[in-house]
Specification:
Elements (H helix, E strand, L loop, with lengths): L2 H17 L2 H8 L4 H21 L10 H15 L4 H21 L7 H11 L7 H12 L1 H21 L6 H29 L2 H4 L3
Length: 207
């Protein structure tokens, strides 16, 4: 579903409200805010842990800013983790940020946030051939549109495969992935063209 977009938007609203306060904006933006951001990460870890005793959000699968702002601030902290001690501190922070989710689920994917954070901390740049780099850039730029449309394209292909008596398997999975990525890229290109052509200059950076 689209719950990720809903939660991300709500997190942005909370961040906008926080940054609207000049003292908080000064702490979070000016100078070197690494330690403040790390403290904010732990603050929202505490809020997430306390929230379960005051709010029953199970009907929303706990998909609210109360639980995800800690990850947002962890990512913000990672930006300023430019030394080995800071990087190690970020890795330590992944335990309270992602630990409860990993503890409560047995699927392998729950370890992805830990591995992804470590990768970003210690491999800040990857050198790729020019053509492959351009392809990765295009897919990354279109990632939101791929996310928004992959369920729909997959359903269509599954229906087509069912009527054509094509068995499910690796070839069909590859086809679904390719179609989802291409569809997302096309929609991203259309969106980018529309924004550059018709949107007022002042709002283009926000879109």
């Amino acid at each position: 579903g689209f719950w990720y977009i809903d939660v991300l938007f709500q997190c942005f609203v909370v961040l906008a409200l926080l940054l609207a306060l000049r003292p908080i904006r000064t702490l979070l933006v000016e100078g070197d805010p690494f330690h403040v951001l790390a403290a904010m990460t732990m603050l929202f870890v505490g809020i997430a842990l306390a929230a379960q005793y005051f709010f029953d959000l199970t009907h929303l699968y706990d998909r609210t800013p109360l639980y995800y702002l800690r990850a947002v601030f962890l990512g913000w902290t990672l930006i300023y983790a430019t030394t080995l001690p800071r990087k190690l501190l970020v890795l330590v922070l992944t335990i309270p940020v992602f630990g409860d989710n990993a503890w409560n689920h047995e699927e392998d994917y729950v370890w992805f946030p830990f591995l992804a954070t470590a990768f970003l901390a210690f491999v800040p740049r990857v050198t790729l051939p020019v053509l492959l780099g351009r392809l990765v850039t295009i897919v990354a730029s279109a990632s939101l549109f791929i996310y928004l449309t992959d369920h729909q394209t997959n359903l269509v292909l599954l229906k087509v495969a069912e009527r054509a008596h094509i068995p499910e398997g690796i070839p069909l999975a590859i086809a679904m992935t390719v179609v989802a990525v291409v569809t997302g890229i096309v929609l991203y290109r259309i969106w980018d063209f529309a924004i550059s052509r018709f949107a007022p200059r002042a709002v283009r950076g926000w879109l």
